[in-house]
Amino acid sequence: MAVTRLRQAEQVNVTVTIESALHDDVRELVSALSAHLLPLSPREFQFGISVEEMAEPRTTVFVARDDDGVAVGCGALTVHDDGTGEVKRMFTIPDVRGARVGDKVLAAIIEQARRHRLERLLLETGAGSDFASAHRLYARTGFQRRGPFHDYPDSGWSAFYELRLTAGDRADHSPAATR
């Protein structure tokens, strides 16, 4: 059955748009993400932001929808006062995993960060084998491992990444360009 699901997932066509975090289907995606993450690490090492925080002006929410308009993935870009952007709340529903929906969401986030003329994008994600597919996504998109940033603690529960977007490094690291 897993092979059948992957074949179906490979055929998913999605459109990624900027939307309000306060839409019910976005709330459902964020709730599903939180439920997915809950058993993977202690709560004190989970750093997701709420949909209300995602609705603040410094955060842009990206939603991937299939051809039927169903929300199948999301991610967010939070712009910090220090001129960095942070990737937050990346998630795809299980039925479309393997279809590179996350690549499309991340490409939209990177494009928006470039429009904001941010120098770099940072992200925190979980550590360990449960997060291997996320780590592969970030690596193939050009993100490099780094140490903790902002107020994240240095623990074995988190992995940190950075993508430099400075004028001297404007190579296209979008997932479509790295295939």
For the CA atoms, what is the radius of gyration?
Answer: 15 Å
- Count structural domains: 1
Write the CATH fold name. Aminopeptidase
Q: Identify the quaternary structure here.
A: single chain
Specify the overall morphology: globular
The CATH C-level class name: Alpha Beta
Number of strands: 7
The major sheet is characterized as: 7 strands, mixed
Head-to-tail CA distance between termini = 27 Å
Classify the helix fraction into a percent range: 25-40%
Give the number of helices: 5
Spans where pLDDT lies below 50 across 5 or more residues = 1-9, 168-179
Order of strands in the sheet with most strands: 1-2-3-4-5-7-6
CATH superfamily: Gcn5-related N-acetyltransferase (GNAT)
Q: From N to C, what is the helix and strand string?
A: HEHHEEEHEHEE
CATH architecture: 3-Layer(aba) Sandwich
Structural class: alpha+beta
Strand content: 25-35%
Look at the structure and give the mean pLDDT: 81
What does this structure look like?
- This protein has 179 residues and is of the alpha+beta class.
- It has a single domain (2-169), classed as Aminopeptidase (3-Layer(aba) Sandwich), CATH 3.40.630.
- The chain contains five helices and seven strands.
- It has a seven-stranded mixed β-sheet, sandwiched between helices.
- Strand 3 (71-79) and strand 4 (84-92) form a beta hairpin.
- The longest helix is centred in the middle third of the chain and has 15 residues, at 101-115.
- The radius of gyration is 15 Å and the shape is globular.
- The two termini are 27 Å apart.
